[in-house]
Amino acid sequence: MGETGRDFWDGAVSMTPAAQKRHSVGEISVPFEASAYDITLFVYCYNNEDTLPEALHTLVEAMDVVGKSYEIVIIDDCSTDHSAEFAKGFMLEFPRVPLVLRINKAHKGLAENYVDAAFIGVGKYFRLVYGDHSEPVETMVDVLKAVGDADIVVPYYVSMRDKGRGVRIYEWLVNTIGGNSINHYGASQVHLRYNVMRWHSNTHGPAFQIDLLCRLLEQGFTVKQVPCRAVPKHPPMGKGYEFRRFWSGVHVLVDLIFRRCSK
Q1: Residue 173 pLDDT more than 60?
Q2: Across the strands, what pairs with 100?
Q3: How far apart are CA 121 and CA 137, in angstroms?
Q4: Strand extents, DSSP E, 147-222
Q5: Structural domains counted in the chain
Q6: Is residue 85 in a domain?
Q7: Using CB atoms within 10 A as the burial measure, which of 123, 154, 223, 257 is most buried?
Q8: How many CA atoms lie within 13 A of 146 on its CB side?
Q9: Residue 255's CB: how many other CB atoms inside 10 A?
């Protein structure tokens, strides 16, 4: 293992002439460098017909400010409303934006679609954007301007009105057990897209991004924490979501303890 997480990919590569027709040394030792776009933005959509158009317009507005090359991958996870039709309408309105829409035949949930979108995309970096329009343009700009400054970009909010005592305790536990110093684990992070495919989370619950971040920090990937000027809106998720979030968070802690003990 090298000094940084990227050293995982590097190595001496030899190929026969037949293999050279299909492969290059670069795509094997630094697979993220030959990407078509700076970033793939995954928009998860499940019954978001009331918010999806605004979320997509906000995303394009933010990327116009940031000025990086990008693509959008929308996955409609078996919505029962008209979300898919709104997504198709956006495609007609913005033909200049590279956009892929996949409409699932079976509901998979956010965590599985997160990894699926990474395989669909062709960007160097990767970030989740919720279809419920939970982030204002200011937050998106703050985060996306930092793309490329480190392997991982972790947002944290200057005003943490929604960060209750339970969240603070949980994040202290994750930092203490994992040996990390992350200000906030609950925001949508930016990762190298290949890392999402290679080290995807062991949990399929709401805490999957926390697990992924911890695994990548253990590997030595670099991180930049970005203070954001705006706190995202959080629509009510229901008791079922809170139950799943709790046990998903417990799963992350247990896995983290086992990995630390195994070392």
Answers
A1: yes
A2: 73
A3: 23
A4: 152-157, 190-192
A5: 1
A6: yes
A7: 123
A8: 22
A9: 16
In angstroms, the Cα distances linking 95 to 69, 90, 163 are 15, 8, 39
- Per the domain annotation, does 115 fall within a domain? yes
Rounded Cα distance between 126 and 129, Å, is: 10
Q: What is the DSSP letter of 21?
A: T
Chain segment 80-131, per-residue pLDDT in tens: 999 999 999 999 999 999 999 999 999 999 999 999 999 999 999 999 999 9
Q: Read off the amino acid at residue 75.
A: I
Domain limits for position 118: 34-262
CATH number of 69's domain: 3.90.550.10
In a domain, 29, yes or no: no
Rounded Cα distance between 103 and 43, Å, is 12
Cα 45 to Cα 218: distance, rounded to the nearest angstrom = 31
Does the pLDDT value for residue 167 go beyond 90? Answer: no
Asked, for residue 18, whether it belongs to a domain, the answer is: no
pLDDT in tens, 64-81: 999 999 999 999 999 999
Name which of 177, 131, 184 is nearest 154 in CA terms.
Answer: 184
Predicted TM-score (pTM) of this structure: 0.93
pLDDT band at 2 (very low <50, low <70, confident <90, very high): very low
Q: pLDDT grade, residue 1 (50/70/90)?
A: very low
Q: Which of 73, 127, 125 is nearest to 100 (CA)?
A: 73
Average pLDDT, the chain: 91
**Distance between CA atoms of residues 191 and 142, nearest Å:** 15
DSSP sequence for 11-66: ------HHHHTT--HHHHHSTTTT-SEEEEEEEEESS-TTTHHHHHHHHHHHHHHH
